Fold this sequence. Notes:
The protein is mostly helical. 76% of the residues lie in helices and 0% in strands. The longest helix is centred in the middle third of the chain and has 42 residues, at 117-158.
Amino acid sequence: RFGESTGIDRAHSGLLDVAVTSGVVAGAAYLALLGAVCWSAGRLARDGCRIETGLAAAVIAYAVQQQLLFPLAELDPVFWLFAGIVVVRARSAAPSAKGAMAADDTAAPRTPPHDRPSERRRATTTAIAVLFGASAAVAGTLGVRAVAADRLARDASRAGDVAVAIDRADVATKRAPYDIRHRLLLARSFERERSLGGVDRALGAIVDALDIAPLEPTSRFEQARLLSLRAAITGTDDDRLAASTAWGRMLASAPNCALCHLGAGRAALERGDIDAARNSLLIAADLGNRDAIAALDQVGQN
Length: 302
């Protein structure tokens, strides 16, 4: 038996988690950053004092175990703080620039200033710093907009006035356009209008959510539920068929979903298919759904 309550899990790997949530490019940047930190930690472990060696080993160990668990808000800030210390100390622990230049002077003619490796490294470091600075600015802006969207969504969910709820939810979708939670909330807000037009607008919001994540189960469930509601309002064969088809798609991917079997049973009752309704409701009841047990009375079952 499977319960109906679900929790959002994350990829148990730092690299996969970043790639899934932020894209392949972000995953590659994350991997490159970890590689640079571990390379610096390796240098510090070789050239540093005992405390620095221990710190470098800890940074490497955490970076490795991070690939078996998603980033933790409680530990990651400390890790990146120590990673910064390791990178800085690794540069200080390396042979001094003066010693390296003196060795170069005795072994070979002086290299022209514009060809010095240190200047090339400085240019590379500056470019990387600019890249990460720009990325941080973009991430910060998106984060601020996401927080604002969440506050608007909270206001929408608490609003007693339907128009206010719709307005707040709509603005939330504009502040965070790729967050499907706000589009689901907008759909529920439209549904509160209790009209055919409200149901159609709610379905439009669900379609927008499915455009972002076509296989996301909550959006697909809401689509099937709203199509059933539309069929109950209009009573047309086309709407009844659309609702039944939507529930069928849900059950194809979630055969142990009691609420989906209940929805399919009610859709079958709506179109007059008693045998299909009985079968769906019996499965939903067997999966522990009490509403399905009550609905069986409509088809002559106890």
